[in-house]
Design a protein that fits this description.
The strands form 5 sheets. Strands 1-2-3-7-6-5 form a 6-stranded antiparallel beta sheet, sandwiched between helices. The chain has a 3-stranded antiparallel beta sheet with strand order 8-11-12, with helices on one face. The protein has a two-stranded parallel sheet with strand order 4-9. It is globular, with a radius of gyration of 20 Å. Helix 2 crosses helix 3, helix 4 runs parallel beside helix 8 and helix 9 packs antiparallel against helix 10. It starts with 8 loop residues before the first helix and ends with a helix. A hairpin with a 3-residue loop joins strand 1 and strand 2. The protein is α+β, with helices and mostly antiparallel strands. The protein is built from 10 helices and 15 strands. It has 2 domains: 127 residues, 2-Layer Sandwich (Phosphorylase Kinase, domain 1), CATH 3.30.200.20; 210 residues, Aminoglycoside 3'-phosphotransferase, Chain: A, domain 2 (Alpha-Beta Complex), CATH 3.90.1200.10. Helices cover 38% and strands 19% of the residues.
Length: 349
Amino acid sequence: MSNDPVFDSARFIEVAGRILARHLGGTGQVELLGSRSGNINRILELRYQGRRLGARVALNRRHFRYERDIIKEVFAILLLYHAGETLDDGLVRGIVDSVLRSPRGSHVAHTAVRTILHYDWSMEEFPFPFFIFEWVDGHALWEAPSADYYAQAGRILARLHRNRFEHFYQDVFSIRHAPRPWEEHMKAAYGRELAQAETALPPGLTARLRRRDLSGLRPGAPCLIHNDYSGANILAERSGQLHVIDWDNWVVDCRELDLVKMKYWTAIGADGRLAHDPALFAAFLDGYEETADQPFDRARLAAYERLWLLRCFNFEHSREVSGRPAADTTSWQEVYPPAATYAAILGTL
């Protein structure tokens, strides 16, 4: 029997009302306009004092593979103000520590990201990490894909990758404390995913993946990597401005990692599943390459493709073994391909 708390939307609306009354004034009466679930989070659309807002609540911490019980988007926004700089370990550690000391905060904003009005991972007012943000009135790229938008998304990503670090790290907690060279960083990540997948993948495929030699690859520069850069997480306003959302997965890694997801999850295909769209992906890469201050490395990209496909296989296989929840019309989960899709792609590489 799970001891995880149950999400209570009515209680959350009460909590949100108290928070918004403190920050924005008013009566604290919040109207729930809609709700939608992803693999990890629930997004609530709210209205307060005639103002459209959103809330993101981290519900599925059990399957989340990155740092749990913090709001990583806050760290990312603060780091984005140093675009174009090489961030020394001491500066980054200072930013990280200052946020870790403050599990509640308000008004964190950057032009490339939606504004966070309030965040809280203290679990004191509500038993899940959450943040309340300014609603972006627009659509996700998946919903109305166009080559112009995908090229613009590539240009934005290239600018985000100008945030560079001194070293690679496993997670934000290890910054400054446990730096590691890229080859060690990549081997650790690849080995961890392959060890988890090897009993579920065909034996021949596992053996072939184990024989892959990463030692000949050139190390890349450690950058701020969104790590979930796809058509779901880029919102287009009616004006045409794009906003990058959902920074929960950001990591310090090579730029090539951020190119993989857009390749395989370019847009939703005719069957309702995410798939590769060659024309849209080409537009995305064109935008990226024309803006990037450093070219990406195709051999390194191939290595990150295998790593990402293994991660997707492991995530979906774990969900399938534990039993997928019944179909939910408010959920995005059904657009994600099953584990067998990623195994099949790995078999062709």
